[in-house]
Amino acid sequence: MTAGTGLIPVHKTDNINKLKSLFPALVHYGNSDMLPMHMPGHKRRADFMGGIGKYDITEIDGFDDLHHPGGILKEAMAAAADLYESDVTYFLVNGSTCGILAAIAAVTKPREKILIVRNCHKAVINAVTLRELDPVYVYPKKCGSLGVTGSVDPEEIRQALAKEKDIRAVVMTSPTYEGVASDIAAIAVLAHNRGIPLIVDAAHGAHFRFGADFPAAALDCGADLVVESLHKTLPSLTQTALLHVKSTLVDDGEVAHQLQIFQSSSPSYLLLASITQCLALMAQDGAKMMATYSENLCSLRQALDRLATVTLLRQETGFFDYDPGKIVFGVEGYGGRDIAALLQSDFHVETEMAAPRYLLAMTSVCDTKETLLRFQTALSRLCHGLPPRKAVSFPNMETVAAEKVMTPAAVRERTWAKRDFRESSHCVAAENLYLYPPGTPLVVAGERISPEIITAIQAYVEMGFMVHGVNDRQLFVVSENMSG
Ligand SMILES: Cc1ncc(COP(=O)(O)O)c(C=O)c1O
Fold it and tell me: Which atom of ligand 1 is nearest to 94's Cα?
């Protein structure tokens, strides 16, 4: 279990005390005789899609407007800001994706340089492309017993900032999909010493704020803009997320402006209600729920540690901190996909992600002692029933620093050619190449495709993984016949 560094808000402000879910208002409206002469087109009919649209409305009187909040949404966002101790918190209904796009656009001008920790989600690269930014990368090393990507070393950030004088912002992911957190406080100081903001993609860290046994929340460590997916680790509907601003370096008016570009002009009230419901619950019972969750995780991890063939990821060398809720494990002699398939077929356990060496079972505060015990029993039975196999060596997927030939935006201006990926060595990639999940680019558009990457892609394809950007063994490269 990680050292207890998480912060729990102690003082409930008036805003937090008033925070209530929007859901009762939707239910009240849905059950009323109000004739809906407004969107959505399903008209809340009970005979349509099993009636799931009953509480699905648009910006009607009394329900405020996400892009120009002045009523219940404004109050709820103020409460969220108090809860997370931000200057401003925005509700997101297009996932962390839209928060990342808006955050990066809000602090950069077209064609400026941005420092990115390269194990980022593709949304970061998409933001770079849209803003025509010039990315400079720092590569965290793979480490730990299962070869996952470790924390980013602040020293590498310091060196990159010292080398490149005109960087406008730093963007990093913490925690990662596998739960590895970095030293945000140290990196925030480095960024602030240069007078630039630190953006943290904490899509997997929305729960940290409420749990003392979890890594510290990015916003509490000095990050300027933090994006958190509520839907990933807290009880909230898919696509719900938060964007927090806590900074003297960021204009929150510009953030709001960018959000009205990247968010739907018809935000779903079911999603908004789910955000308020989730926050009201966490404000009320979050600390207690997280303490129970933490206790249950401890028991689960102890039990999994006793399984002789299981290697369970934990706080390891190369990790600044680690989220114990991410159950990342490998089984000796078996690939992640083998184990995922057996858990699914024989025990009806669906895991989140399978990589060549390991798989990820996600837990959350909504798991109970019983659900975690069911998972533990399934894995234990599976492991005891598996014929022993010698440890296999998996191809080294070490991230090799790629040569950036042009920016991702410049690639969009060029003509492209199709190539068999096995014959694309030294060509410039026209599209990002990545596995999904986790959506972290192996190659970013505009980078030279190295022989090592081709070997890695070959290995992934042979193991049955789908590499996005490679279809029927073909990928797009920047055509060599074009200049400019
Ligand atoms: C690290 C990370 N950042 C951002 C995202 C995007 O989040 P969302 O799906 O909420 O848009 C993901 C999604 O998997 C992610 O893993």
Answer: 11
